[in-house]
Design brief:
183 residues, alpha+beta, 33% helix, elongated
Length: 183
C-alpha cells in the first residue's frame, strides 16, 4: 500500500510539475498556479510514502538460527563458473560468471556422504586445536515488529528476507599458506 502511495505521489508530482512549467512557457499563470498546487499535494503524498516505508523498515530486526551442523570429510576452495548463451542469424551473446566457493564432502546421519558448496563471501573459516572438522549453517531472518497483516498490506510483503551464512571449523595448520605475486 505504501509502495503504491509512493509511486502514485511521485508520478503525480512529476506530471503536475511538468504541466506547471509548460503553463509558464505559454504565460498562463492561473493554470500554472493550479498545477503547482497539485504538484505540492502529490509531493506531500510521495513524502508520506517515503517516511512511512522508512518507519516500517526501522521496525525490522534480525533473528539468527543455527540450521545445520555437519561433520566434514574434505573441503577445498574452488571457483564456480556459470554462463549462458543465445544467438540468432546475425548475433551471438555469451555471458560467463565466476564465483568463489568452498566445495566440501560431509557425512549424513545415516552414514552416507554428500557433496555441498557454499559461497566464500558468506563463510568464515576457523582453525582450532583438537577439533573435529565440521560446517555450521546459520539462517538469518529479517522480521518486523509490526502486526503481520498490517505489515503485509502496507509493504506488499516486500522486505521479508532470509539469508544463510556458514562457519567452517578445521584443525590447526590444515590451511595451506602460499604467497604468489604476479606482475
Amino acid at each position: 500500500m505504501l509502495w503504491f502511495i509512493l509511486v502514485l505521489g511521485g508520478l503525480g508530482a512529476i506530471l503536475y510539475f511538468c504541466l506547471s512549467i509548460l503553463d509558464l512557457t505559454v504565460l498562463d499563470f492561473e493554470a500554472s498556479r493550479e498545477h503547482f498546487v497539485k504538484f505540492i499535494k502529490f509531493f506531500i503524498v510521495c513524502l508520506v510514502g517515503v517516511f512511512g516505508l522508512n518507519g516500517i523498515s526501522n521496525l525490522n530486526y534480525e533473528e539468527i538460527e543455527k540450521t545445520g551442523d555437519w561433520e566434514l570429510i574434505s573441503v577445498a576452495d574452488t571457483v564456480k563458473i556459470s554462463g549462458e548463451g543465445s544467438g540468432g542469424l546475425f548475433y551471438v551473446h555469451v555471458s560467463v560468471d565466476s564465483e568463489d566457493v568452498y566445495s566440501y564432502y560431509y557425512k549424513l546421519d545415516n552414514g552416507g556422504i554428500k557433496k555441498g558448496s557454499v559461497k566464500a563471501e558468506n563463510t568464515l573459516i576457523y582453525e582450532n586445536n583438537d577439533c573435529t572438522p565440521h560446517i555450521v549453517e546459520y539462517t538469518t531472518y529479517t522480521k518486523n515488529k509490526m502486526n503481520k497483516i498490517l505489515w503485509a498490506i502496507a509493504t506488499f510483503g516486500i522486505g521479508d528476507e532470509e539469508s544463510k551464512s556458514y562457519e567452517i571449523y578445521v584443525p590447526k595448520n590444515s590451511i595451506l599458506r602460499t604467497y604468489s605475486l604476479g606482475i
